[in-house]
């Protein structure tokens, strides 16, 4: 009996040791990859600056702004002017979209989630614009990789980011969070805390321009993976966006729509609007066209992550009327992770 107990203890210790080694190795590799990405981004462009975690504020006013991003097969393009604000789509990396904003009344310019600096600076230069604000939704390297180089190139530009993630946003100067309201030129900007993808994620809403910048919280026909948050948190975050108007343009940060559509029809196969949208998305991507921005009303009608109340989706997932909406959302998210 003592021998069996000793052997059991030995196996347990070996298991714990191997488990600890596995976790440590994964953590080290994640750190190395993140550092390599940031170093590569900085070395390709301009010198970096140290983080600057300034004091939080409840109200700010940007004196000017500029935004732009890199290039891809889709190309840099203006997606139009709404409510006195022009939005320019700048593709970066493999599937990122960076958004350059210009307030027509003030001539101020801002950039949202600059994955890298060079494409943004090229877009700014081609338009003769300067940069006054750098807006981050969360800390991931493909959303903040251009912060330092852009700040070096445009020292007057303010780096704005989530208060809850202030220690992970390079160069953050202005910290904002849920309920904060500030102004970008003539545009009112409202901030929502939207944790789930990351614990400090925020979303920017500009009602005058019908412009929503959800980062990786909401995608066209999808939502972000839950790297740091729970399904309850993510559903609560998405629920904050649902009351916004149907006409709100969703400027998400990735071109994932075609892949999201392929999944969406598996959990909502009877949705005629979804089938029609999938066909349009497939045709657009076949032509090499972007599918972002989308309209929030269209997302409400076709995005399964926003429709956990729908009886057809519940039935498809084997969930009944008694299930909470967040539980259905969790099932949709789990199914997408396996897809």
From TrEMBL:
Domain Metallo-beta-lactamase: 95-254
Pathway assignment: Secondary metabolite metabolism; methylglyoxal degradation; (R)-lactate from methylglyoxal: step 2/2
Catalytic reactions of this protein: an S-(2-hydroxyacyl)glutathione + H2O = a 2-hydroxy carboxylate + glutathione + H(+)
This protein's record includes keyword Hydrolase: yes
Entry's Gene Ontology molecular function annotations: hydroxyacylglutathione hydrolase activity; metal ion binding
Keywords of the record: Hydrolase, Metal-binding, Zinc
Pfam families: HAGH_C, Lactamase_B
Cofactor(s) recorded in Swiss-Prot or TrEMBL: Zn(2+)
A single BP term in Gene Ontology: methylglyoxal catabolic process to D-lactate via S-lactoyl-glutathione
UniProt entry tagged with the keyword Zinc: yes
EC number per UniProt: 3.1.2.6
Family: Belongs to the metallo-beta-lactamase superfamily. Glyoxalase II family.
Name of the protein in question: hydroxyacylglutathione hydrolase
């Amino acid at each position: 009996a003592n021998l069996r107990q000793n052997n059991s203890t030995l196996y347990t210790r070996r298991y714990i040791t191997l488990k600890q080694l596995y976790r440590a190795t994964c953590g080290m590799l994640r750190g190395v990859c993140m550092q390599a990405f940031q170093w590569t981004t900085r070395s390709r462009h301009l010198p970096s600056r140290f983080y600057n975690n300034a004091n939080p504020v409840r109200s700010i006013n940007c004196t000017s702004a500029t935004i732009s991003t890199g290039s891809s097969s889709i190309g840099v393009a203006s997606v139009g002017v709404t409510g006195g604000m022009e939005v320019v789509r700048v593709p970066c990396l493999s599937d990122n979209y960076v958004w350059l904003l210009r307030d027509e009344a003030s001539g101020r310019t801002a950039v949202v989630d600059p994955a890298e600096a060079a494409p943004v600076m090229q877009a700014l230069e081609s338009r003769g614009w300067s940069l006054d604000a750098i807006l981050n939704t969360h800390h991931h390297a493909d959303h903040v990789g251009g912060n330092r180089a852009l700040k070096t190139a445009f020292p007057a530009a303010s780096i704005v980011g989530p208060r809850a993630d202030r220690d992970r946003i390079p160069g953050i100067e202005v910290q904002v969070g849920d309920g904060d309201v500030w102004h970008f030129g003539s545009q009112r900007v409202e901030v929502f805390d939207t944790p789930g993808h990351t614990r400090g994620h925020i979303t920017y809403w500009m009602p005058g321009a019908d412009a929503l910048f959800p980062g990786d919280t909401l995608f066209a026909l999808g939502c972000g993976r839950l790297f740091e948050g729970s399904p309850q948190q993510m559903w609560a975050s998405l629920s904050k966006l649902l009351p916004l108007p149907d006409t709100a343009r969703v400027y998400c940060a990735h071109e994932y729509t075609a892949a999201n559509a392929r999944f969406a029809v598996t959990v909502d196969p009877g949705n005629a609007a979804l089938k029609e949208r999938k066909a349009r998305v497939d045709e657009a991507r076949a032509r090499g066209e972007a599918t972002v921005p989308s309209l929030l009303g269209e997302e409400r009608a076709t995005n399964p992550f926003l429709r956990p109340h729908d009886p057809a989706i519940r039935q498809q997932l084997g969930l009944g009327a008694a299930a909470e909406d967040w539980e259905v959302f969790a099932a949709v998210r789990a199914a997408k992770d396996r897809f």
